[in-house]
Predict the 3D structure of the following.
Amino acid sequence: MFLQEEDYSALIRDEIKALLQEGYSSTKMKAAEQMAIHQVKNYLSGKYDAQSIFEQEGTNRNSHIVMITIDLVLYHLYTSTIPDRMPTIRAERYQDAIDWLKLVASGNAMADLPKINKANGDALNGIRISSKYKPNNHKW
């Protein structure tokens, strides 16, 4: 599994984690983790090797992706357990994570992640279309 138990201690206190897991089984926790992982994969899969990113273990994992994934997991747990008591910081961190994923997916931000490779092993780069002519505005 990509996320480990000790990853959560860096972002939330143990009593908050216990509150979120109240009435939850380990199966439901894993389901929330899988939802978050697939959410991140869906944003990154166009430019980055999402399979390779989530196959990493231990210290080989990208810590920013771990943090973002945990933020998404916690948001999903709050919304399914106690949505009326969700701290604003949790909603803000979720939105920050989604905004960053959207920027990376659109190519407006770079990430230190493995790119998708062509069959010969070269990195697959996006196509950029440019023109030597200045754009014109013909609105009247």
Summary: The mean pLDDT is 82. Residues 5-106 form one domain.
